[in-house]
Amino acid sequence: MTDTNASSDRLKPYVIAAESQPQLVANLRALAGGESATSDPHAPERLVIVADGEEALRLLATRAADRLERRPDKPIHDVGGIYYYPEPLGLSGGIAWLFPGEGAQYLGMLQGLDSQWPEVESVLQQCDGFARQIGPPFQSLRYFIDGWLQDDRDRGEQLLRRLDNAMLSVLSAGWCLSEVAKMLGVPMQAAAGHSAGELAALMTAGSMELTTELPMFANVMNQMEVQSGGGDAELLAVAAAADKVQPVVFQALATAGMSDQAMVAMDNCPHQSIVVGRREATRRVREAIEKAGWIVEALSLQQPYHTPMFAPLMDPLRAAFDRVGFRSPDVPLYSCATGERFPDDSDQIRQLSLAHWHNPVRFQSLIQQMYADGVRLFLEVGPRGNISSFVADILRGQPHAAIPMDTPRLSTADQIVHAAAQLAAHHVPIQLEALDLQFRQAQGNSFVPPSPREAVAAAIAPGSDSVMSSHLETMQQLLAEQSDVMQQFLVAKNAGRTIGSRSGRRATAGNRSRRRLAAAAALPTDDILANESLWSGEEHAFEEAASGGGGGLPRPELPLLGEVSEFEPGMHLVMHRLLDPAIEHYATHHTVGGREVSAIRPEQCGLPVMPMTFTLEMMMEAALQLAPERVVCSISRVQLSRWLAFYERDPITIRIEATLMPADDDATTRVLVRVMDTGNREEPFGDKPKLAAVGTVTLAAAYPEAPLAQPLELTDAQQCETTLKTMYNNLFHGELFQGVRSLAKIGKQGIESTIEVLPRDELFRDDRPVEFLGDPVLLDVAMHPNAAWHLEQPDQTGRIMLPFEVKSVEFFGPRPAVGTRFECHGSLDEQSPRHFTHSVVSIDGEGRVWNRINGVRLWRFYLPFHEVNFHGPKNVYHLSEEFATQASAADDAIATARFAWLDDLSQPTLLRAAAEVLLSEQEYEDFIDAQIPHAEKVRWVFGRVVAKDAVRRLWHQQHGQRLYMSDIDTRHDGNGRPYALPRRAQHPSAGDVPAADAVMPNISVAHCNKLSYALASTARRVGVAVHPIAEVEEAHVAEALLPEEVSLLSACENRERCFAAILATKKAVAKATGLGLLGDWKNVRVIACDGEGQATAEIAGNLLAQLPAMAGHRWTAELSHDVDGKGDGKILAAVIDATV
C-alpha cells in the first residue's frame, strides 16, 4: 500500500496495487486487519481508497475486498472513497480539460482550497488586487469563497449574479483549479469550453496571446449597462436531444410558413436542447413539442444568442476580437460552434471564436468528436460540476469518466482528493504526492506552479458593451436553467418506479402540476447534475434493486425492514423503504414545528420527521439479518447528518445498507449500517444518495448482565416545577410519544423521572406486526425529561435542540412489555454555545439498568423560546415584536410588527417545517410550487410571518380573539399590494374564527437586510417602507428626486439620513395609495423632511393621473431610526392616513 499523503488530519488517497486481482483482495484483507501489505504502485491491478484515518481505511478496505470478491468483473465507483476500474481508461485513452462558463459560480466554491493549496495564494492575491483596482461592487474571488460568510448571504448572492463578478469568479476559479491540476501533473491532452467557457479553454491551451490581465475584462463588464431585453425572441428548454427536436421544429415552422423564425440553438446532451426564435414561431413550436410528449418550458430570456438572428449585433464584438492576438494552441482545442477541432491558423481561430457567439452550441457533437479522437477522461476545471453531468449523459453506455474538481457537495480540497484518486485508479500518471502540503513544502520549488498566463487580451471597443453584457448575463441564467430541464427529464423518466413501498403505493402523489423550469434558474444544482464520475459499465444501484425483488431475509417480520435489493447472507444487505406518512402513523406524532397550529384544520401540524430512535431501530433490524441467531447489545458511533422527512405529496425513499465488519473478538459480531436519502420525484438524488445516518451495531449470543443502577448525584436538588403539560407544550411529540408519567428531583447535573412503555398498535396504519428489537418509542420518551430540565434553566436562549450524534445505546435485556414503568435518570454531560450532550439511564423495578443512552449530542438552534415557542401553540405566541408609532399607540385600529430574521429558521428543512405550521393551505401550495432561490423563499415566508403577526395583533385588539397564523390567508392584488382573508372561507364548518365575510385589515410590508416590518389597519390607509442609511450617490439623487427635493436634501445637516428618509417616505406613501410608485420615484413629491420625526408628501406624475381625487392631499409619514443585527442604520417610514 502507498500512503500518498503524510498529513493526518484530512483525507488521503491510498493506492493498493497487485499483480493480480486475488492478490489485490489479499492485500485489502491484510490492510483491513491492521497489517501492512506490500504494494507495487506500478502493478497492473490498482485500487485507490480515500480515507481520513486508519479506522476508516480498514473499514473501506473490507468493503472493497467484499465488492471485488462478489463482483470481480465490475468497477467500483463508491463516492464514499473506493475507486477501482478493471479496464482503466488512462491506459486506453487521453484526458481532456473542460471549462464551464458563467452560471457555474456559487457561494462557497473553492472551500478549503487556500489552506491545502497555499500555492494558489498568488492567484487570490492578484484577484484581491483586481478588486481594489476596480472598486465596489466588484469583489475578489476570495469574497465568494468564504468572505461572504461575514456578510449578508442575500447580498453575496446578489453580488455573485452581477455580470462582472459572475464572469470573473468563474475565470478566476478555473485559474486556481488549473494551477492545482498542473501541480498534480494532470496531463492536458485536449481542451474545450462550454459556451463562454470556451474563452478559458482558449487561454489555457495557449491560443490567445494576452496583452492585459483580468482587470481589463472586469472593467469592461463593470461599465456595461445590462440590456433589459429587446425584440421578440424566446428560448424554449426541451428535455430531448437536438436531432429529435429539430424535425418537429422544422415541420411546425414549415406548416406555418415561418421556416427561418426559430431553430435549435443549443444541443447539450441527449436529454436537453434549447430552441430559440421569434415569439409567434416559438408558440407554434411549443405546441408541436408538447404534442410530441416532451417536457418544454420557456426560459426568461429574450435575445437570439447562438442563432443567425444574433448576427446583426456582431459588429462591435468583431472589432473587439480583431484586437486579440491568437496563435495555434498547444494541445488539440475543440470548438463549441463546430464540434470539431480548432484550425491551426490564428486568423481562422479568431473568426471561429467570434462565430461561436452567433452559431449553435454543439456540445454533444464536441464531446462525441473528442471521444472519437481518443479522449476517455474528462476533467472539469471549474466550479459546480454541471458539465460533467452533460458528458455523462452524452457518453452513457461507453467507457468514460467525467470528473469535476469542485462540487457543492464536498469542500473543494476534499473533492480534489477524490478527483485525483479517480484519475490514479484509471492509471493516469499524476503525482499524488503533491496532494500533501508538507511534501510540496519539503520539495522547495518543485511544485510551485508556473506563472499563470495573462487572462485576457485586448480592450473591448466602445459600443460592444451592451451586446457582450447581455450575452454574459443570459448565459449565467441559461446554464442553471439547462440543469433544471435535465433534472426534470430524469425525474419524469423514473416517475412510475416504486421501490420499497410496503403497500404498493407509488412514491409520488402523481397529480402534481408541472413546475416552471425557467423559474428554477437560481436554485442550487442537484447532485444528480453534478456527478463526480459516471462509469458507463456499472448499472444504477436502484435499477438493480428494482429487478431484484424482496424476501429471503431470516427475520422478515421486523416492522422497519424494507424491500431487499441485495442480500448476501452473513455479509451484506441493501434494502429500500418508502417513507409514507399515510402508513407510518408514528411520524405524524413527531412533527418539527409543533402540533397545535390551526383552529380550522386541527389535524394540521408541523413537518413529520423520523425520530432518531426509529432510525436506530431500523439500523438494528437491518444488522440482525446478517446475524439472525444473535441479539443486539448496542449501537455505537452514530452520526446523524440529515433529517428523514415524511412528505405527503411526494414521499422519499431511503436506502439501508448493512455490511459485516471485522469483529473485535469471537463473542461479538459488528455490522456497519448506513441509511441514505435517495430523494423523491421532486428532488431525485440519482446514484448519489444523501447520507442520513451511520452507525455500528454490535450483536452477541446473549444480552450482557444488567448492572445495578447507580444513584444520580444531584447538586441543589429540588422538586421539578415544570408540569408534564408544560413540558409537552414545549416539545413536538403527539400522544403516541407522551410516555413520561412524572417529573421528580432536578439539580445541576440532571433530572429524575418515571416513564412508561406505551402501546404500539397505532404506530402503523397497516397490519404489520409491531415487534421491535428495542422500543424506539420508549427510547424517545426517555429523553423527554431532559426538556423539562432545560425549561427550569434561567437562560432559555439556544434551547431548541436536535440530535446529531450518539456515542452509544446499550441494551441489557429484551423489549419490555406494554405498561412497564422505568425510573429514568437524565444527565447533562457537557455544553457549549452550539451543543449540549446528554445521557439517559432507564432502570427497571429491581434497580437494574435495562438501557443506557450515552453521549447524545444535540445541536442548539437559536430561535426565540419563552417569548416565542416555536413548537408550542401558535395562537399564543408572536414571532415578531411591535414597533412604536404615535398613531398605533393612540388607536386600536392599527397594529405593527417588526421581525428580525432568524438564521437558524432560514435553513431549508426548518423553513419547510415553519411553512407547515405558519401558512394556510393555499400559501403552502404556493410555497412548495415556487421555483425560486432559497434566499427568496426565506423572504417569501418571513414576509408573511410579519404581515400575519400584525393582523393577529390587530384582531386581538379589536375582537379579543387569538388567531393562528395558518388561519390567515395572505394574497396580493393586481398592483402587488398584500391583503388578508380569513381561511374560514374554505372551511365554513370551523369554530371560533373570523367569519368568511369578516372585514380584514389593510396590510403593508417592507424588508431591508434581514429585517421585515408590517402595518395593519381596518380603518386607515397604511404604508410602511424602510431604506438603508448609506453614502449618497449623485446618480441616484438625479434619478429619484425632484428639484425641490434636491433643495430639501441640501438643507439637511445629515445628508445620508435625510436621503434615506425621503426615499422611505416616497415608498411608504406610494404603498398607502395601493398602486405603488409605478416604476418612478418622482411620482411622489416630498414637501417637508429633515430626516427626523415626520415627513410630508403628495402624489404627482402618473400616480396623480391615476388618482386625481387625491390631488392636493397631504400625506404624513412618521420617521424612525432602526439598526439591524450588523449595526447598519436605516430609516423606517410609516404612513397611517385618513379613514378608508
From TrEMBL:
Its EC number is 2.3.1.41. It is an enzyme of class 2 (transferase). Residues 558-867 form the PKS/mFAS DH domain. One of its GO terms (molecular function) is holo-[acyl-carrier-protein] synthase activity. Keywords: Acyltransferase, Transferase. Gene3D superfamilies: 4'-phosphopantetheinyl transferase domain, Malonyl-CoA ACP transacylase, ACP-binding, Malonyl-Coenzyme A Acyl Carrier Protein, domain 2, Polyketide synthase dehydratase. Residues 719-867 are annotated as: C-terminal hotdog fold. The active site is at 590 (proton acceptor), 780 (proton donor). SMART domains: PKS_AT (SM00827). Pfam families: Acyl_transf_1, PS-DH. InterPro entries: 4-PPantetheinyl_Trfase_dom_sf (IPR037143), Ac_transferase_dom_sf (IPR001227), Acyl_transferase_dom (IPR014043), Acyl_Trfase/lysoPLipase (IPR016035), PKS-FAS_Synthase (IPR052568), PKS_dehydratase_sf (IPR042104), PKS_DH_C (IPR049551), PKS_mFAS_DH (IPR049900). Residues 558-704 are annotated as: N-terminal hotdog fold. This is Phthiocerol synthesis polyketide synthase type I PpsE.
